C-alpha cells in the first residue's frame, strides 16, 4: 500500500477521494506507483446498499487490456514507443541486427550481457546439441491430421516435450526448483533453456514436414541455428545439401528481430502461467497458444491476405477509402506500443531487398509499396500515426522464401521462445520469490438471489439465453433419436 512520506517530497502523488474527503500520499518509484495503495480508499455505503458493492472494498484500478499497467520490473527489453526505440539489454536493435546473430542475442537477452568467445562457443554448442528429440516424437507428430494447423501442432509439441523431463517439473521436484538460485538450481534451469531453444526449430520443422507427408530429418551438425532449421525442413536426401546462405542469413536477422518485445500478450501469458511454478515446457506451450491468435502472431499472415485481396496497385486508392470508412481492415500498419515507425521495419525492408535478389520480387510487392506510399501521404493515417510495422514486410519475405501462409506464426514463435525464457528466468530469480499472478475484477453482476426450482422458473430479461440449436451429423441424429426414443431434435 501507499506508505506515508513527508509532504514536502516532490517524488510523490497526492490523491484526494472526493466521495469521502480522504487524501492519500503515494511514493513514486521508477515513475510508477503501487496499485495496491488505492485499497486504502473506500466509500461509505449508501443506506440499503448491498454488502457486496465494490465501493465498500477499496478502490480498484480498472485497466482493460493492460494499457497502462506494469506488473514487474525488468532489465531485459526497453521500448520507447514515442521515439521508435527498441533495445535488448541496452543495445540498440539496429546494431545487433548488423553485428550479432540470433543465438548470440539470445544469450544476451537471457543472461544480461554479450558472451565472450568461449561463452558463445559453449552456448551455441549446448543449444545445437539439444536439438535432437526422442524417437517417440515421430509417432506423436504422425498422430495429427494431415491438415492440422502447424501452430496447433507446435503448441501441443511444447507441452508434450515436458513429459520427458521429470527433473524439470516443480510439481515433482519441489516448488523451489527454479527459484532458489543455487548452482544446482541454475544448472537445471540452464539445461531446460538449452532444450527449449534447441528443440524449437526441430519441433517446428517436424510440424512442417508432417503436413508435407515427408519423413523427418535429424538436426545436422556444423550448421548455424537457422541453417539447421532450413535443412530440417527442406532436405530431401541430396548429398552435401546446404541452404542458400542469403536466405539463412535473412531468417537469422528476422529471428533476432522477433526474439523479444517486452511484455507482449504471449510473454505475459508465459509469466502468468509460470507464476504458478509450472514446468517451463507448459509455460512455453501457453505462450505459443497466445501467439497463435490473429491479433498477435498472425499479423504478418493477415498482411499477405490483405494484399491478395487488394489485387493490384490500381485498387489501392479504393482500399484506402474503404479503410477510412471502416469497411476494410488495414494490417501491417500501426502498433500498440510504437507511436512512430517500428524500428524493426527499416531492418526488415533491407533484408527483403537481399532476399528478393535471390528469389525474385514477390508479385505482391508492387501492391505493398503502393499501399505504403499512399498511406504515408494520407492525412488520415498520419494523424493516427499508422506507420508500417515489422509485420508489413516480414510476411513478404516469408512468402518469397516459399513458406505457406499458416506457417508464418510458427516463424514468429520459434525465435520468441528466447524472449519467453528470458522473462521466465528473470521472474524465477527475482528477489522475494515468485508471487502468483491473480488479477482482480470489478463485479457488476446480480446481487444475492434465491434458488428457484426448475419447474417454477420464468425467463429473466438479460440474464437467460436459450441454448443455440446446432446442426448434427447423420450419425449424431440417429444416435440421439435412439437415445431419446424419438424425441424431436
Distance between the termini: 57 Å
User: Beta-strand percentage?
Assistant: under 5%
Average pLDDT level: 89
User: Reading side by side through the largest sheet, how are the strands ordered?
Assistant: 3-4-5
Rg from alpha-carbon coordinates: 26 Å
Number of helices: 19
Tell me about the biggest sheet?
3 strands, antiparallel
From the spread of the alpha carbons, the general shape counts as globular
Number of DSSP strand runs: 5
SSE pattern, N- to C-terminal:
EEEEEHHHHHHHHHHHHHHHHHHH
Percent of residues in helices comes to 40-55%
The low-pLDDT segments are 4-8
Structural class: mainly alpha
Biased composition (Polar residues): 1-15
Pfam families: Citrate_synt (PF00285)
Protein name: Citrate synthase
Family: Belongs to the citrate synthase family.
Describe this structure as you would to a colleague:
The chain is mainly alpha-helical. The chain has helices at residues 93-99, 102-111, 117-129, 137-142, 150-161, 170-173, 183-212, 225-234, 245-257, 265-274, 280-291, 299-310, 316-324, 343-359, 365-377, 379-383, 390-400, 408-428, 474-483; strands at residues 12-17, 22-27, 77-80, 85-88, 91-92. The strands form two sheets. It has a three-stranded antiparallel sheet with strand order 3-4-5. Helix 2 packs parallel to helix 9, helix 7 (183-212) packs parallel to helix 8 and helix 11 (280-291) packs across helix 18 (408-428). The protein is globular. The N and C termini lie far apart (57 Å). 36% of the residues are buried.
Amino acid at each position: 500500500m501507499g506508505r506515508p512520506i513527508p509532504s514536502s517530497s516532490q517524488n510523490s502523488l497526492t490523491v484526494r477521494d472526493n466521495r469521502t474527503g480522504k487524501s492519500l500520499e503515494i511514493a513514486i518509484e521508477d515513475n510508477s506507483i503501487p496499485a495496491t495503495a488505492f485499497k486504502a480508499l473506500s466509500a461509505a455505503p449508501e443506506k440499503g446498499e448491498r454488502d457486496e458493492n465494490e465501493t465498500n472494498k477499496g478502490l480498484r484500478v480498472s485497466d482493460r487490456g493492460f494499457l497502462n499497467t506494469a506488473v514487474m520490473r525488468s532489465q531485459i527489453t526497453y521500448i520507447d514507443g514515442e521515439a521508435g526505440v527498441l533495445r535488448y539489454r541496452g543495445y540498440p536493435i539496429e546494431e545487433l541486427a548488423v553485428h550479432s546473430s540470433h543465438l548470440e542475442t539470445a544469450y544476451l537477452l537471457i543472461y544480461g550481457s554479450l558472451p565472450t568467445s568461449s561463452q558463445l562457443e559453449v552456448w551455441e554448442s549446448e543449444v545445437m546439441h539439444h536439438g535432437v528429440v526422442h524417437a517417440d516424437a515421430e509417432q506423436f507428430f504422425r498422430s495429427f491430421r494431415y491438415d492440422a494447423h502447424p501452430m496447433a501442432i507446435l503448441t501441443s509439441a511444447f507441452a508434450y516435450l515436458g513429459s520427458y523431463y521429470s527433473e524439470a517439473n516443480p510439481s515433482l521436484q519441489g516448488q523451489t526448483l527454479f527459484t532458489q538460485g543455487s548452482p544446482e538450481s541454475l544448472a537445471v534451469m540452464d539445461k531446460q533453456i538449452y532444450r527449449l531453444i534447441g528443440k524449437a526449430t526441430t519441433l517446428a520443422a517436424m510440424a512442417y514436414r508432417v503436413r508435407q507427408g515427408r519423413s523427418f530429418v535429424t538436426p545436422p551438425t556444423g550448421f548455424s541455428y537457422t541453417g539447421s532449421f532450413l535443412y530440417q525442413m527442406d532436405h530431401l536426401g541430396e548429398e552435401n545439401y546446404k541452404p542458400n546462405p542469403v536466405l539463412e542469413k535473412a531468417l537469422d536477422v528476422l529471428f533476432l528481430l522477433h526474439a523479444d518485445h517486452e511484455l507482449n500478450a504471449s510473454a505475459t501469458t508465459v509469466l502468468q502461467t509460470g507464476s504458478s511454478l509450472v514446468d517451463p515446457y507448459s509455460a512455453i506451450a501457453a505462450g505459443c497458444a497466445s501467439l497463435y491468435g490473429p491479433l498477435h502472431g498472425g499479423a504478418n499472415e493477415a498482411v499477405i491476405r490483405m494484399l491478395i485481396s487488394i489485387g493490384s496497385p490500381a485498387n489501392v486508392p479504393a482500399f484506402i477509402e474503404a479503410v477510412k470508412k471502416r469497411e476494410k481492415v488495414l494490417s501491417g500498419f500501426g502498433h500498440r506500443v510504437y507511436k512512430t515507425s517500428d524500428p524493426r521495419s527499416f531492418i526488415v525492408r533491407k533484408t527483403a531487398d537481399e532476399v528478393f535478389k535471390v528469389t525474385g520480387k514477390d508479385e505482391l510487392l508492387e501492391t505493398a509499396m503502393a499501399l505504403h506510399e499512399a498511406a504515408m501521404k494520407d492525412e488520415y493515417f498520419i494523424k493516427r500515426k499508422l506507420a508500417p510495422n515489422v509485420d508489413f514486410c516480414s510476411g513478404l519475405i516469408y512468402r518469397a522464401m516459399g513458406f505457406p501462409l499458416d506457417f508464418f506464426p510458427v516463424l514468429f514463435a520459434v525465435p520468441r521462445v528466447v524472449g519467453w525464457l528470458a522473462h521466465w528466468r528473470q521472474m524465477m530469480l527475482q528477489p522475494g520469490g515468485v508471487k502468483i499472478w491473480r488479477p482482480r475484477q470489478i463485479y457488476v453482476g446480480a446481487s444475492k438471489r434465491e434458488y428457484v426450482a426448475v419447474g417454477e422458473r420464468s425467463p429473466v430479461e438479460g440474464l437467460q439465453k436459450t441454448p443455440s440449436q446446432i446442426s448434427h451429423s447423420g450419425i449424431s441424429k440417429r444416435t440421439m433419436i435412439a437415445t431419446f426414443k424419438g424425441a424431436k431434435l
